[in-house]
Amino acid sequence: MKKPVKTVAVYLLLTIFLALFNFVYGLFSHGVKSSYMGSMWLVTLGAALLYYILSHVRNLTHRRFHRLFVNLFNTSVAILVMGMCLRGVIDIAGSSSDYIDWYFIVAMVGFGLSFITMVPMFLLPSRPSLKTK
Length: 133
Fold this sequence. Notes:
The protein has helices at residues 3-27, 35-38, 40-54, 66-93, 101-123. The chain is mainly α. The protein has one domain. The model has no long low-confidence stretch (mean pLDDT 87).
């Protein structure tokens, strides 16, 4: 299986897991709902959609800054989903925390940096092949 297709499959499995996690957690939350926990699966679905679109770009994995973009993007998705899950748990518990906002700030900075690295990825030429002739 090619790497982008495998990444899309993993994100789709994570989307299903997060939707099921929200459903099961909702069963034990005494009828209290949280919009953060209810929509955290949309983040992984959006990431899968972006990877699916980028998988159709020719020679994308051989371009400069591709690995940096992927690492920043995956980390930002993980931080955002964790922040949404924690905010949902805290909202359902009826409490609040000022520290949860840092998850969203760090995730947005990570997304910004990943999309900044996307620009030179499309503008610069592909890396030369590492194979010897």
